[in-house]
Amino acid sequence: MIRILPQDEAKLLLTRKAIRLEEAERVVTPILEEIRREGDAALLRYAQKLDSLGSQPLQVSEKELSEARSGLSKEFLRAVDTATANIREFAATQIPREHLTEFSPGRKLGQMVRPLDAVGCYIPSGRYPLPSTLLMTAIPAQVAGVRTICVASPKPSPEILGSACSLGLTNVFRMGGAQAIAAMAFGTETVPQVDRIVGPGNVYVAAAKKLLAGEVGIDFIAGPTEILILAESGNARVIAADMLAQAEHDVDAAAILITASSDLASQVAVEIEQQLKTLPTAAVASEAIQRNSAVILVPTMEAGVELANHFAPEHLSLHDPSLLDHIRHAGTVFLGENTPESAGDYAAGPSHVLPTAGIARLRGGLSAADFVKVIAIQQLSPNALSALAPAITTLARAEGLEAHARAVEVRSVQ
After folding, report:
1. Quick check: 166 and 84 in contact, CB under 8 A?
2. Active centre residues (catalytic)
3. Is residue 107 within 8 Å of residue 385, measured between CB atoms?
4. Nearest in space to 242 (alpha carbons), one of 260, 224, 254, 259
5. Residues 399, 402, 403, 404, CA torsion sign
6. What is the pTM of this model?
7. What pLDDT is stored for residue 371 in this prediction?
């Protein structure tokens, strides 16, 4: 049964294990260097060895993508269409706006927004093939205007291939792990080089992204998935279901309820046990519940909010929407009892690619804004430059940069 802990005993649970990638880095470093040097030759070698590529071509043909889509049920295709429309609609609100504004006479400042040229979307297809991750990564990139979108998936399911076809994606590759990250980062004879790589993956994917960050843009280093629920009252069946929905992802997943109600704590613990009895993924979920999860009893919900902000969860569920103004750190927030985390995973609209391991202190989830550059624009009239000249030349000479000062004065500013 899930642990019920008082707040003073929950510190260890809420202290995440550091994401230790040293061993994975040692494994992936030679893979990265071989693909950097040899391109397709090394990529094919590792794809056959680690991805079971066999005699299949590395790139999925448009014919195969179309055939995969044709084989999908109408129900699945309708679900994809619904999710696609909602993701696209929300992503459009995330693009920064362009402007050029005259802040003072003759001093015009603004910004232009330009998409990245190419991005790579890593789509897991191991225990659970994730066509939803394809939607949650590629659609924001499309909305941002990215011209080249590459999809890497080691053993893409028909649902992944058919979804790619629905989105009009053609650069789809049967490759996974560090070799896929390297191929997209460096480019090969077959795989286009990209500017940013996004999407979750295993420890080897995480290690490769960490090692190549700087040579290629990344979203973040993913750790185990997690949900934190803040609820003083509510339906125990609903709360237990939300916790198990997170726990079934992986044995390292964490599902945490923070409550000031001992009655609710006990009810949820019992309900989790009941639901596990009929859950097909119980083997995974029960281990995650026992190892990494708990119900934490706090004296007040205000104390619970502080715990939540300290933890900075990937997913935060607030059964009381009035607590929202007090939240400082979360990857995404689900407001109210009728907003399950599953909705965000599939079809509500925001991307489900979210920061884990406390990175929500620094940023929110993946968005269309991650696929654009905001470029500042500056324009000065002669009079505006004249007004700024004393400040510019004084600061330049204070730093010992005489040419900077002269670049102003040579324009005959009086």
Report:
1. yes
2. 314-315
3. no
4. 254
5. positive
6. 0.94
7. 98
